[in-house]
Write a structure and sequence with these properties.
five-stranded parallel β-sheet; Rossmann fold; seven-stranded mixed β-sheet; single chain; 14 strands; 2 domains
């Protein structure tokens, strides 16, 4: 049995960590996180964690390399202070898209990051909605991938969309979209993307399913530049879709993604707060962005891990 539960926050999404701690009715552990003029990261704890059951909340979102290195240094700090157990809670897993060798002479960085987290001293790993399921198998330590599907199901049950069809914006999102459609008892459609035979056009869209005269819910795991999402929305609009909304767990919103979403045909984009969205960026999305909090879900998972209870029971039908 481990000692008392303690929660620490990195700097990547402090607001989420505060909300999780509030749900758990614990105080966040005190710490200093500094970056020296030479860009080195330094972490110091304000109190001892000896023997404690420590949960460190730090998504590896942009700037990915800084936040990842902070995560590793923070884990090492906790381990060197003799924490009883260290669980890395990484709501968004950066480098998750580099999960396989899809061309010659390239890395599998998702595996490398998993190794780094374990070597730094984490005893357990928790995340939400990995880009690819096989990443969970990259970890040599116990890992829990928490699905945000239930949060989206609750949202769309509370705000039902009539005459709806669920759309996977590409083949990679098909499993996620299918599970979503099954839970809401809705039909499913998918966009297939291919390079044109002459090689002159980058993509050719083929629609599998029917969207004409229907409202569409696009389902994906993350929104990066928003290119895939908005192109898919524009395409099904041309195919006769009516109202179009989207949901995705991780609002990465790189480059001009906020402006791209605002100018798109999408009426609403529902995301989780796994990644911190600056007010300036959310404002550029106009009134389209709807954020669902994940703090209560993460707090429940953390409490179950601390008490040695099943995490999977949370998601059993």
């Amino acid at each position: 049995m481990y000692g008392d539960l303690m929660v620490f926050a990195g700097t990547a999404n402090t607001e989420l960590a505060v909300a999780v701690a509030n749900h758990l009715q614990v105080q966040l552990g005190g710490r200093d996180v500094k970056r020296f003029p030479n860009s080195n990261t330094f972490v110091r704890l304000h109190q001892s964690v000896r023997g404690k059951d420590v949960f460190l909340i730090q998504p590896t979102s942009a700037p990915v390399n800084e936040n990842l290195m902070e995560l590793l240094i923070f884990i090492d700090t906790l381990r060197r202070d003799s924490a009883g157990r260290v669980t890395a809670v990484v709501p968004y897993y950066g480098y998750g898209r580099t999960d396989k060798k899809d061309q010659p002479r390239v890395p599998i960085t998702a595996r490398l990051v998993a190794d780094l987290i374990a070597v730094a001293g984490a005893d357990r790993f928790v995340t939400l909605d990995l880009h690819a399921k096989q990443i969970q198998g990259f970890f040599s330590i116990p890992s829990d991938e928490i699905p945000a599907l239930g949060l989206f199901i609750e949202h769309f049950k509370a705000h039902p969309i009539p005459n709806a069809v669920v759309l996977a914006p590409d083949i990679g999102a098909l499993r996620r979209a299918r599970n979503f459609a099954e839970r809401l008892d809705l039909p499913l459609a998918v966009i297939e993307k291919r390079r044109s035979p002459d090689g002159k056009r980058t993509e050719v869209f083929n629609l599998i399913g029917d969207v004409a005269g229907k409202n569409v819910i696009i389902v994906d795991d993350e929104i990066d530049t928003a290119g895939t999402l908005t192109r898919a929305a524009g395409f099904v609009k041309q195919e006769g879709a009516l109202d179009i909304v989207a949901c995705a767990t991780h609002p990465v919103l790189s480059e001009d993604a906020a402006d791209t979403l605002r100018e798109s045909v999408l009426r609403e984009v529902v995301v989780c707060d796994t990644v911190h969205i600056p007010k300036e960026k959310s404002g550029r999305c106009g009134d389209k962005l709807k954020v669902i909090p994940v703090a209560a879900l993460l707090a429940d998972v953390i409490q179950r891990i601390h008490e040695g209870r099943s995490v999977g029971e949370l998601f059993d039908e």
